[in-house]
Structures are given as C-alpha cells and as structure tokens.
Write a structure and sequence with these properties.
CATH class of the largest domain in chain A: Alpha Beta
CATH architecture of chain B: 3-Layer(aba) Sandwich
Number of helices of chain A: 12
Shape of chain A: globular
Largest sheet of chain B: 10 strands, mixed
Radius of gyration of chain B: 19 Å
Order of helices and strands of chain B: EEHEHHHEHEHEEEHEHEHHEE
Helix content of chain A: 25-40%
CATH topology of chain B: Peroxisomal Thiolase, Chain A, domain 1
Strand order of the largest sheet of chain A: 5-4-6-7-1-8-12-11-9-10
Oligomer: heterodimer
Strand content of chain B: 15-25%
Largest sheet of chain A: 10 strands, mixed
Distance between the termini of chain A: 19 Å
CATH superfamily of chain B: Thiolase/Chalcone synthase
Number of domains of chain A: 2
CATH architecture of the largest domain in chain A: 3-Layer(aba) Sandwich
Structural class of chain B: alpha/beta
Radius of gyration of chain A: 19 Å
Strand content of chain A: 15-25%
Strand order of the largest sheet of chain B: 4-3-5-7-1-8-12-11-9-10
CATH class of chain B: Alpha Beta
C-alpha cells in the first residue's frame, strides 16, 4: 500500500482547445470557450451559452482518424490518445494496464436524435449498441488495446474524480501497474433541458463565487490522466509530471440535487483526501474548486472550505467559466488544469466576477497569478446524489 | 482476509423476498419471454410522500437495499456500492419523451433529477444517512462484478467494515421494445425447451435488485463468503474460458476438484451460449442454471450470487436448477460463470463459511 502514484501523461479536449497545449494557452490568456451554441441541435440555441468543443462530429472523426463514432466516444478517444502519447506509452502490454472512464449520459447525444423516430415511426436505427454507459469505454479501450481492467463509473458531476481515485487504489493495491483514468461527456439536449428545468443555468457567462451568480454554463469534453506506480516509473525511467497524493469520496446525504448549506459532504471529502495524503490542511497551496456558479454550490463549497481550513483558506478559484461544466469530464479536465497550474506556477483566475459573496469571508483569485510556487493542489468535484470527491496533486 | 455475506436481499421474478421461498414450485421453462419482478410492499420501504414519483428501479433498488440492512438488523453501513448497466431508464425515457413532445418547453425536473445513474446509491445514502464511500459502476454486464471487486478492495484497505453492495436493472416497456426489435428476445413460440437445451436464438429477459451486506467479520447469520471475482473481456474459444477458469482457481488457491457446483450463466440463446456450453461439458463438474429463474439482465450475476449463497447456507439445490445430474453431497465451493452475448464473462467463487 505504500507505493506512490505518479501522473506520467495527460490528454484533454474541451471548449478551450483540442490538446493540453491549446488548453494551457487559453487558460494563460484568461480566454473562455463559452459561446453561443453552434453544433448542438436544440431550440434553446439562442437562449443559452455553452462550452462546446469547436468541431462538428465529422471534424472530430477526422481528427481522430475514425469513422462514425458518436461524439462521446470520439471526444474520449482524442483525449485518451493524447494522454497515452504524452506518457510515452507505445506498448500497452509492458505493464498491467487498466482503463477507467466515467460518463453521466454516455451516448445520449446520439440517442436523443433517433429516440422519437425509433418508437413513434418504428425506424430501424436503434440505440442499444451506442447508448449505454459502458459502450464508449469499451470502444476507447479496444482502440488503445487495453483488456486487463476496463470499467465505467457514473457518480454524476463527481464521476471523473472517482475514476482517478479508483485508479490510484488499484495501483496501491498492486492490481495494476498503470491505468488511464478520466471521463467524458458530450453536450446533449437532455442535459441542457434538464439543468434548465432546475433553473440553475445562467443565460450569460457564469460567475463562479460572485455575489450575483445565477447558475452554470454547460460544457463538454474529455480528459484522461495516465497513473503509474513508483515501480513502473523507475523500471521504465519515466518522467513524472506530478503525484496523486490524496483522494476522498463521501456522500452529503442531504438532498438528491442540492448541497447541504454547511457543505458536510464536501467537508468530508476534503478531510478524507488530506488524511490519505497525510497532509495538514496548511500544506495545500491552491484549490481548484468545483465552483459551478450556482447559488447553492458556491455557497455550500465555500463554507465547507472555511470550515476545514479554519478560516486560513488557501488561494482558490474555479475554472468552470473557461470550459463550462463538463459533468462527468469535469474532475478530469480540472485535474489537467490543476497539474498545469503546478507545472507553470500559475493560478488561473475566476472570470466574470465583480462582487464579493456576502455569505463567505473568503475571496477567490480573480486575476491571473504567475510565479506562485504550488506544491500541493486540491481539486473538488460534487454531484447529484450527494456524491462528493476531492483529489490532491503534488509536485514530485 | 475473508469477505462474508452477512445478509442479502433479492427482488426478482419469483417471490425471493420471502426468506423461506426456495423455488419449491417453479418451472424449468419460463412462462413468458419477459420475467418481471414480484414486487414487495414498496410503501414499507419508500417514504409515502415520494412513492408516487419514485420510478420502478428506484423502488426495487431502495427496497432491496433497505431489506438487506434490515435482515442483518443493521441501521447503518460504512459504504454503498451499486452496479447498474442501464441506470434509471424509466425516468430517462420520461424526460426524453417530454423534451420531444413539448418541443423543449415547460418541462418539469423530477424525471431528470432521478435519471442519473447514481440515484439508487444516492437515495439509499440519503435514507440511512450514510456519509461514507458511495460509488456507482455502469459497465454493462460487468457492472455488478466491478462493484463487488471494489467492495472486496475497500474491506481489504480497512476503509469500511461493512459495505452494502448491489446490482440493479429494470425492465420497462420501452426497453422491452428495444431489446425485442434489436433481436435479443426469444420468440414466444420457441419457449418450449429449457435454456440448457435450447436450439433457438434469443433469450428471456429479466430484471431485479439484489443487495448484500458484506463484512470482513462473520456473524452467526453469515450465509457464505466470497473467495474471489474475476472479469474477462472478449474471448474467442471455450479453451480460453477453461484457461481463465484455471487461472482464477489458482489465484484463489482452489483446485478444480474443490468446486462442488458450477452455476452457469447460459441464457438459452443457442448461438451466444456456444462457448459456455462447451466449457460446461469440458470442465466435467455438476452444472446448475439460474437464468430461467430470473431472466437475462445485465446485473444478473447479483441474482446468481444471492442464489449460490442461499444454496450454500441451506446445503440444498432446487431441482429446477440442476438438470441431468445428481446433486453433490456437500456444497462447499460454488463457481459462478456468467456471460452476456458471448462478449464479457465473469467468475465469482462463493464458499461455505
């Protein structure tokens, strides 16, 4: 159980770029990818802004050199391939390798287009082989040649954090030598309308941790990390980008969709992650918060941070105003951003803020910070069903 | 370290919620090509103010989970892990239809809120106020196996002393239509042979919710222990199944001779069962079956585990499950070999405490 878990590769595709490099460029220029809806077929096209990946399905298939995959699989494949490439992995079988992906709505982006015709007009194209959650995971794993341990997790908006956590545990338990972990979600009418019924979508750019925040902007994308054991890193003389030093999973057990006012689940997840890392709270230099921009989340998360850090809350910000809330991909996308922060000694600020939140005594970073030494970065992700997860990344 | 099943609860086609029921009066041939569950009195488990809005899978899942805790006399659990391949499809279907029917206007949130795959695990956590580890696996027909693997690892890590782990999938009209039109369901006129002697394509579909209360310490009520779980991706031959089976037995320190019974995941689809049938004849051990009792569904391994644990506890095999073979004198180790569509296989070994 003592082995350290290294991050040796990462890949990402989001509204702010098709690669780690492009995402970093947008982040360091404080450039958002949230804009008018272009590709998603919805009647709300002119009503909401979203963090869409800036390519059609055809273009995405061309980028990946594939045919006919739905948006979910193709986004996942692009990010997973970049992660493997950046980890310098050529032979999958040179270690016990797993693939753990997460998704909330899987193939919904395609299912919703054919659903009505299938049932009402009895058209032939069914969705049995494209809709259900494991499908895209298996397709991506097959492309990468991974067979050892392939699974899918769905814990709403905390999903990818749990994929990362499971991967780390499998390495620590000596079940795998390395594992590609992360998540993917494509935008869908289903989720856009769903969040709209909950009245937690902002029609303009979201304003995480601002007094006048109105809600979130949805996004889409995928991101994966390559986790490897200390032994594997030494054996193959791998370059380690960072360490995954802590993780925690807890349940708020308060309400199906809302967070408890005091953020009990968030508090427990952060507390567990610190315990696994064996870090005192003051060792955290920066928190990439869940910070969706909904009134409920930012208040609850902020209060939980104030509680656990006893009013010595580290620097924090939310990067949701760059990428949008990418649901099951969010924690993986923010893991990549957290590692970019550490590698480049930068804190990417909250965007669109103007007024201090009245129910918090803490203020997020709102201007780009450079030359900040970040040794340990915490990343939070919370979801429906009370699922709360926290990851801690450290400089090697 | 051992993993004990200290209690279990199963909602399935037959009256398995009755502790004393053990398939005394059943049939070798399913009565229909869709085997729906025999429901418990849901209002005993679901809060009255929400029952009307609670979907089928949530009712089954929550009731089965709470029943399992009640059977053990436990009010709490340290962790909740659920496997579900299709998640909350009734609510997904409802919300999709309302989007289409209302042109994305004037929608209500309830079905969307309850459509996320982790709703069963989240609702149980909410009802028993469990703030601990909470996970949902959604990996097709290995969803339950991965939940189980996680539970074994969590107990080993000492992160939890007791874990509620379950497998849940629902069969609702749009799914029946989907499976039928995709060519998976056995035609009614072919419902004449037992699944193990089937010469026709397709399977009988089912649904269910089965939960286990696992612990690293046994009690007087412990039913059985779980020796190990193995998942296997695509295989090409029955030789590979044998190879995987021997690898698994070696991993859990057992020999073929130690296994008293194989509980086989054959579902009656003559094409897709081919490899597993060949395996069954090559392994030359007593073979029992379960999918004529619960139907085929993605998390049917949870039914199989419940069934195996009950057989071990009772030291008895229902005649309806064991054709053509004399019952073994003792049931110490049962090997469950499950499969779906000849794509993904899994092995679970259940042993006497």
């Amino acid at each position: 159980m003592s082995t350290r878990v290294h991050i040796t590769g990462m890949g990402i595709i989001s509204a702010i770029g098709d690669s780690v490099e492009e995402n970093f460029l947008s982040l360091s220029q404080c450039k958002t990818g949230i804009a008018k809806i272009n590709h998603l077929k919805t009647n709300h096209k002119n009503e909401f802004v979203c963090g869409e990946v800036k390519h059609s399905n055809e273009e995405l298939n061309t980028i990946a050199g594939t045919k006919n995959y739905n948006r979910t699989t193709i986004l996942g494949l692009i990010a997973a391939k970049e992660a493997l490439h950046s980890a310098g992995i050529k032979a999958i079988k040179e270690g016990r390798t797993g693939f753990i992906s997460s998704t909330t709505v899987a193939g919904m982006c395609h299912t919703e287009l054919i659903y009505k015709d299938f049932f009402d007009n009895k058209t032939n194209e069914n969705f049995i082989d494209s809709h259900f959650s494991g499908v895209s995971t298996n397709e991506i794993a097959a492309h990468l040649g991974i067979t050892e341990y392939v699974t899918t997790i769905s814990t709403a908006c905390s999903s990818a954090a749990n994929a990362v956590m499971l991967g780390a545990r499998l390495i620590k338990n000596n079940i795998l030598d390395r594992v590609i972990v992360g998540g993917v979600d494509a935008l869908s009418k289903f989720t856009l309308n769903g969040f709209n019924t909950l009245m937690i979508l902002d029609t303009e750019w979201c304003k995480p941790f601002d007094e006048n925040r109105k809600g979130l902007n949805l996004g889409e994308g995928a991101a994966y990390l390559v986790l490897e054991s200390e032994e594997q890193v030494k054996k193959f003389n791998k370059k380690s980008m960072a360490l995954l030093s802590g993780y925690g999973n807890a349940n708020d057990a308060y309400h199906q969709t809302a967070s408890s006012p005091e953020g009990h689940g968030a508090f427990l997840a952060m507390q567990k992650a610190l315990k696994v890392a064996e870090f005192p709270p003051e060792s955290i230099d920066y928190i990439n918060a869940h910070g969706t921009g909904t009134p409920n989340n930012d208040s609850s998360e902020g209060i939980a941070m104030q509680t656990i850090f006893e009013n010595k809350v580290p620097k924090f910000s939310s990067t949701k105003a760059y990428t949008g809330h990418t649901l099951a991909a969010a924690a993986a996308i923010e893991a990549v951003i957290s590692i970019l922060s550490m590698q480049n000694n930068m804190i990417f600020p909250c965007l669109n803020r103007s007024e201090q939140m009245k129910d918090l005594s803490i203020t997020p970073i709102s201007e780009l910070q450079k030359n900040v030494d970040l040794k340990n970065v915490m990343s939070n992700s919370f979801g429906f069903g009370g699922n709360c997860s926290t990851l801690i990344f450290s400089k090697n | 370290m051992e993993t004990y099943i200290n209690s279990q609860a199963c909602i399935s086609h037959y009256n398995t919620i009755d502790e004393d029921f053990f398939f005394e009066e059943t049939s070798v041939i399913p009565s229909s090509n869709f085997l729906f569950v025999t429901a418990p009195v849901y209002k005993d488990y679901i809060p009255a103010n929400t029952i009307r809005r609670t979907s089928h899978i949530l009712k089954m899942g929550i009731s089965s989970g709470l029943m399992c805790l009640k059977n053990e006399g436990a009010e709490q659990t340290d962790a909740i892990i659920v496997g579900t391949a299709m998640g909350c499809f009734e609510d997904t279907d409802k919300f999709l239809r309302s989007i289409n029917d209302n042109d994305e206007r004037m929608l209500t949130p309830t079905s969307f809120i309850q459509s996320t795959h982790n709703t069963v695990a989240g609702q149980i956590a909410l009802l028993v106020k469990c703030h601990g580890y909470n996970f949902t696996y959604v990996h097709q027909n290995l969803s339950f196996e991965y939940a189980l693997l996680d539970a074994l690892m969590l107990l080993k890590e000492g992160e939890a002393k007791n874990i509620l782990v379950g497998g849940v999938d629902e069969l609702i009209p749009p799914l029946c239509e989907l499976f039928e039109r995709a060519g998976h369901i056995k035609k009614t006129e072919n419902l004449q042979e037992p699944i193990w002697a089937s010469t026709s394509k397709g399977y009988v579909a089912g649904e269910g919710a089965t939960f286990f209360y696992l612990s690293s310490t046994s009690t007087a009520n412990s039913l059985a222990k779980i020796k190990g779980v193995r998942t296997i991706q695509k295989l090409k031959s029955s030789e590979e199944l044998l190879e995987q089976c021997y690898l698994f037995l070696k991993e859990i320190n057992l020999k073929k001779e130690d296994i008293n019974l194989v509980l086989s995941g054959i579902n009656g689809d003559s094409e897709k069962d081919e490899h597993l049938k060949e395996f069954n004849s090559k392994i030359a051990l007593p073979i029992a079956y379960f999918k004529h009792l619960c139907g085929e569904y993605f998390t049917s391994s949870s039914f199989a585990l419940w069934f195996a644990a009950k057989m071990i506890k009772k030291q008895q095999i229902p005649v309806w499950a064991l054709p053509n073979t004399e019952a073994p004198k003792k049931l110490q180790h049962i090997l469950i070999f499950n499969q779906y569509e000849d794509q993904q296989y899994s092995l679970i070994c259940v042993s006497q405490c």
